[in-house]
Design a protein that fits this description.
Layout (H helix, E strand, L loop, with lengths): L8 E7 L5 H15 L4 E7 L6 H11 L3 E6 L5 H11 L4 E4 L11 H9 L4 E5 L7 H19 L11 E4 H4 L12 H7 L4 E5 L14 H20 L3 H29 L8 H30 L10 E4 L7
Parallel strand pairs: 1-2, 1-4, 2-3, 5-7
Antiparallel strand pairs: 3-8, 4-6, 5-6
Helix pairs in contact: 5-8, 9-10
Length: 323
C-alpha cells in the first residue's frame, strides 16, 4: 500500500495479553475490510503484553502492508494505547474495538453507513451482552447510568469499545486515565453529532478478561474530573473564581472580628496575631485561585493541545527488522 494513498478507514485495536486472539482478529478484520473495497489500515497497539502477543503482531505486520503494529514499552493502560493509535492513524474514519474477539468486525460496515448518513460518532450498543452478570454487567450498568447523567450523553452502552469517529473529531481529543470510556462525551465538546447502533457481542473464548470491579472505581474518579472539565472547559475562570470567592469571603469574617475587637474593645493588634494570620492565608489563597483561573483561561484560549509522546513506543511494520 502506497503511503501517498489517502486512507479511508483506520481500525485502532489495543491489545494486552491476547496471543490467541490477535491472529484470529486480524483474519476477521482482513476479510471484512477487503470486502468493503475501501483503502484501509489496521493499527494494533500492544500495551506491554508478556504472553507472546508482540511476536504474533510482528508476524502479521510483516506480511500485510495494511497493518501497523505498535509495541508499547510497558503496560500504560487502554486509554494511553488508544491515544497512540489516534495519534498515528491516517484514515478519514477511525474505528475502535477491543482485541478480545468479543466485538464483531462484521459490524464495521454498519458503523460506516451511519457515519455516511451525517453522524460524527457512532457508538455500539451490546444489547445482548455475553458477560458475567455480577463482575461485568452490573458494574457496567451502574457506571453507564452515572456517565449518562453527568455527561448528558444518552447512550445505552458507553463502555462498548466498538465505535466509529470522523478523524477531525478524534484528533482533537487527549486521553488519559480511563477516559476512553468517555469518548462520546469528549466528542460532544468538539460539537460532534452522536448516534448509537445495536452490535453483536460474543463470549470470550481465549485469554482472560482485563476488567474487574476495581476498574469501576477508577472510572468513577475520572468521571468526577470529567464533570468539571465539561462544565468549565470553555471558561475555567468561573470554576477557580468561585473557589477564590469562597476563600476571600471566609477571610472577611475573621477580618471583621479583628477590626471590631481593635476598634471597640481596644484590643492590641499583637494579641490577635492568630486571627490575622488566618485572614492573610485565606485572602492569599483566594487571590491565587483567581490567578490560576486566569492562567487556565489563557491556555484554553490559545488552544494549546499536547499530543502523545512518540518516545514511549516502538513502531513495527513490514520494513522493521528489530525491536
Amino acid at each position: 500500500m502506497s503511503k501517498d494513498q489517502n486512507i479511508q478507514v483506520s481500525v485502532v485495536v489495543p491489545l494486552y495479553n491476547e496471543r490467541e486472539n490477535a491472529p484470529r482478529l486480524y483474519s476477521a478484520l482482513h476479510s471484512v475490510l477487503t470486502g468493503m473495497n475501501k483503502r484501509y489500515e489496521i493499527i494494533f497497539i500492544d500495551d506491554g503484553s508478556k504472553d507472546g502477543t508482540r511476536d504474533e503482531l510482528r508476524k502479521i505486520s510483516q506480511r500485510d502492508t495494511h497493518v501497523r503494529s505498535i509495541l508499547l514499552r510497558r503496560n500504560f493502560g487502554q486509554s494511553a494505547a488508544m491515544a497512540v493509535g489516534f495519534k498515528l492513524c491516517r484514515g478519514e474514519i477511525v474505528v475502535t474495538m477491543d482485541g478480545d474477539l468479543q466485538n464483531d468486525p462484521k459490524d464495521i460496515p454498519m458503523l460506516l453507513e451511519k457515519i455516511k448518513e451525517g453522524h460524527d460518532v457512532v457508538a455500539g450498543w451490546r444489547k445482548d451482552r455475553k458477560d458475567k452478570l455480577i463482575i461485568r454487567k452490573v458494574p457496567s450498568q451502574i457506571a453507564n447510568k452515572l456517565i449518562c447523567s453527568v455527561t448528558d450523553i444518552q447512550l445505552h452502552d458507553t463502555g462498548c469499545a466498538l465505535k466509529a469517529f470522523r478523524k477531525e473529531v478524534i484528533k482533537g481529543i487527549r486521553l488519559y486515565g480511563e477516559l476512553h470510556r468517555f469518548l462520546p462525551a469528549l466528542s460532544k465538546v468538539e460539537g460532534a453529532r452522536i448516534t448509537e447502533v445495536v452490535v453483536d457481542h460474543h463470549p470470550r473464548q481465549f485469554g482472560k478478561s482485563k476488567y474487574n470491579i476495581t476498574r469501576t472505581f477508577r472510572v468513577l474518579m475520572d468521571l468526577s474530573s470529567l464533570n468539571i472539565f465539561l462544565k468549565y472547559i470553555r471558561n475555567p475562570l468561573r470554576y477557580f473564581g468561585r473557589i477564590g470567592v469562597w476563600f476571600l469571603f471566609s477571610g472577611t469574617l475573621p477580618a471583621g472580628f479583628v477590626g471590631y475587637r481593635m476598634v471597640f474593645d481596644q484590643v492590641e493588634f499583637i494579641t490577635l496575631n492568630v486571627l490575622v494570620t488566618l485572614v492573610f492565608l485565606l485572602w492569599v489563597a483566594g487571590l491565587q485561585f483567581f490567578f490560576l483561573g486566569l492562567v487556565a483561561s489563557l491556555i484554553v484560549r490559545t488552544g494549546q493541545r499536547h499530543g502523545v509522546s512518540l518516545a514511549t513506543f516502538l513502531s513495527f511494520n513490514k520494513e522493521a527488522k528489530n525491536e
